[in-house]
Amino acid sequence: MIRRSAGRAFRVLLLPARAAPLMPRGPAACYGTSITSAKVQVNGVNLHYQQTGEGSHAVLLLPGMLGSGQTDFGPQLKYMNKQHFTIVAWDPRGYGKSIPPSRDFPPDFFERDAKDAVDLMQALKFKKFSLLGWSDGGITALIAAAKYPTLIHKLVVWGANVSVTQEDVRIYNGIRDVSKWSEKVRKPLEEMYGHKYFAKTCEAWVDGISHFAENSDGNICQELLPDIKCPTFIIHGEKDSLVPQAHAEYIHKHVKGSRLLLMPEGKHNLHLRFAEDFNRQVEDFLR
């Protein structure tokens, strides 16, 4: 069916239950703007995180490749409803301000990130929480939801995949050389990491994730999807040039009871480009 929000079309597929229609409203309420920043030792690494809000529903934001709370989730940290939610955005080991160590990509790096993320939230004394994962962070969130089901309340993922095809490898190699990235995307990462670390880590990521294509069916974590029991919301931009739509459809098919939202104008960074609509959709799902 078609929904329109703020003048933009959304196509929702296979909702398990009929959702209430979206009504026009202003920017998402934020109830204060204070964002704290700190580090906590988790699994031998000092992990950096940002935290805001005072709501009873804890939410962890999981960034993509080379991402951090600062670079990946500005509109969510600023505008998600801070009366209803306590929002935490973490920097995975080797990313953002969670350096040292330098980032590496062993075969189990997604599982390592999933354990770090869950252990971070437990170190912060959150007994149960929801996960919002973008791109690589979406893969991490899927693994965490499957492996730690008693801790995860709800799950939202976008720009994620659970396998790597030869077409994906071609796409990844197309972004290997960061000098070819647009200045708008490249500049904040160069400012955070310096050009050398940024370029080296991107190349290492391409090599690391491309190795999954050598597995049977290019598997990353396909076998874990049936173990996800929490309510799950999958969002995909139909103009995402980095993650083909088939990946979102696969996740939707194999996570029982999940919802799939297709954003016709959405690209890989749909939560930034359409932040107000994205935040509204996510908040409605989490409540």
Fold blueprint:
Layout: E1 2-5, E2 8-13, E3 36-42, E4 45-52, E5 57-62, H1 69-72, H2 74-79, E6 85-91, H3 109-123, E7 129-134, H4 136-147, E8 152-158, H5 166-173, H6 183-193, H7 195-210, E9 232-237, H8 245-254, E10 259-263, H9 270-273, H10 275-286
Helix pairs in contact: 3-4, 6-7
Task: List the main descriptive attributes of the protein structure presented here.
287 residues; alpha/beta; ten-stranded mixed β-sheet; 10 helices; disordered N terminus
Short structural summary:
Helix content is 34%, strand content 22%.
Q: What this model shows, in words?
A:
By secondary structure, the protein is of the alpha/beta class. Helices cover 34% and strands 22% of the residues. The chain has ten helices and ten strands. The chain has helices at residues 69-72, 74-79, 109-123, 136-147, 166-173, 183-193, 195-210, 245-254, 270-273, 275-286; strands at residues 2-5, 8-13, 36-42, 45-52, 57-62, 85-91, 129-134, 152-158, 232-237, 259-263. It has a ten-stranded mixed beta sheet with strand order 1-2-10-9-8-7-5-6-4-3, with helices on both faces. A hairpin with a 2-residue loop joins strand 3 and strand 4. Helix 6 (183-193) packs across helix 7. Mean pLDDT is 91; it is low at 1-10 and 14-31.
